[in-house]
Amino acid sequence: MALGKDYDYAAQECSIARALEIIGERWTLLVMRDALYGVRRFNHFAEHLRIPRAVLAARLRSLTEAGLLEKHRYQRTPPRHEYLPTERGRDLWPVLRSLGLWGRACPPGTQPLRTFHHARCGTELGSYGECPHCATAVPPCEVETRPGPGAVSAPGDPVGRALRAPRLLLQPFEIEDPM
Amino acid sequence: MALGKDYDYAAQECSIARALEIIGERWTLLVMRDALYGVRRFNHFAEHLRIPRAVLAARLRSLTEAGLLEKHRYQRTPPRHEYLPTERGRDLWPVLRSLGLWGRACPPGTQPLRTFHHARCGTELGSYGECPHCATAVPPCEVETRPGPGAVSAPGDPVGRALRAPRLLLQPFEIEDPM
Predict the structure, then answer these.
(1) pTM for the structure as a whole
(2) Interface of B with A in 25-64 (CB under 8 A)
(3) For the segment A68-111, what is each residue's pLDDT rounded down to a tens digit?
(4) What is the ipTM of this complex?
(5) What distance in Å separates residue B75's CA from the closest CA in chain A?
(6) Cα–Cα distance for residue pair B67/B64, rounded to 1 Å
(7) Which one, of A172, A99, A94, lies nearest residue A138 by Cα?
(8) Which of A102, B10, B63, B179 has minimal CB crowding within 10 Å?
(9) pLDDT, tens digit (0-9, with 9 covering 90-100), for A34-48
(10) Could you tell me the pLDDT band of residue B45, with boundaries at 50, 70 and 90?
């Protein structure tokens, strides 16, 4: 847990502290970001995040235990699993959106690396994840992500390459698994 | 920095990773939460967060260096400083709001410890800190925080006690400094 067990959450009376207890650990939010992008398989998380495999295994386990991801077997022999975001996991979308919007502006003047749009009408989402055109909150399954003007380098991993084209959040990646 | 210097942010092409580099470190978001509540003085942060003083000093320093807090001298002899959130720091409000709203729901059925309202109209804020009634983003200076039905214990520190009554964010606490 990110804040240590000696931390008195009850005395803090704060849902932010509670949230950080679950998702404040290093890598956790980036794993959830990838899960919302549609990443489901261990190797794809590992390649896209460049995260040590032991750390990734631990994070996937604790996110599954915390009810943010659900583990499904997609192949019987040899057994292979994938991780899908639960409703609780998908509910992190506003956190990821607001974090991303804040991070976009550092350093000031930075071009966005990625933009997010309401898939139905193409309008870029507003600062609270709403569609200004349709005047509604937009759930992640209706969000299209597109590479922004700040995206310059060419990522070498399959997930990074797939994300160079517009795509819906939560849509699984069609990537051949070498293993 | 939270993710370590070996982490290749540029390859990640992600503003969330950039944001976590600055605010992903343990305690940092809770220090910024308190700063948005209106906490300005070292002792008040220390008492309310129950954070080791050396860790607090390090976080205040790095947040000041990162441009999220600004250090002001409010007393000449002996010299005393306070920390005020900059515009960049106040821009974290949607992140804190969405994190808090997400954390409120764990475990499911939890009563809110604190609610946040648009001070002008009293409407409870939406998931990104927007006012659903006025259909606008609400800056933290227009946000009123109120103790929610889940707030049961009586915090012993002066900031915690002051937060048991409705109050505007960013408003400085009128607390006698014992030092």
Answers:
(1) 0.86
(2) 26-27, 29-30, 33, 49-50
(3) 999 999 889 999 999 999 999 999 999 999 999 898 876 667 78
(4) 0.85
(5) 29
(6) 5
(7) A94
(8) B179
(9) 999 999 999 999 999
(10) very high
Are B16 and A104 in contact by the 8 Å Cβ rule? The answer is: no
Helix spans in A73-146 (H) = 87-90, 93-104
CA atoms of B54 and B99, how far apart (whole Å)? 26
Beta bridge partners of B41: B82
Short-list B111, B138, B102, B112, CA closest to B123: B138
Partners of B144 in the β-ladder: B117, B168
Crossing angle of helices B53-65 and B42-49, in 10° steps, is 120
How far A127 CA lies from chain B's nearest CA (Å)?
Answer: 8
B126 near A CB under 8 A: yes
The helix-helix angle for A53-65 and A28-37 (nearest 10°) equals 80
Residue pairs between chains A and B whose CB atoms are closer than 8 Å: 170
Going by C-alpha positions, the residue among B134, B140, B135 that lies closest to residue B121 is B134
- Letter for the amino acid at A12? Q
Place of tokens 């227009």: B142
A147-162: average pLDDT: 81
Q: Mind listing the pLDDT tens digit for each residue in A101-130?
A: 898 876 667 788 889 999 999 999 988 888
Both tokens of B27, joined, read 């305690």
- Taking contacts as CB-CB distances below 8 angstroms, the residues of chain A near B112 are 15
Query: Which residues sit opposite B70 in a β-bridge?
Result: B84
**B20 reaches A (C-beta below 8 A):** yes
Query: Which of A128, A134, A153, A159 would best serve as a mutation to test chain B binding (most B beta carbons within 10 A)?
Result: A128
Q: What single letter denotes the amino acid at residue B25?
A: E
Distance CA B104, CA A128 (A): 18
Chain A touched by B165 (CB under 8 Å): no
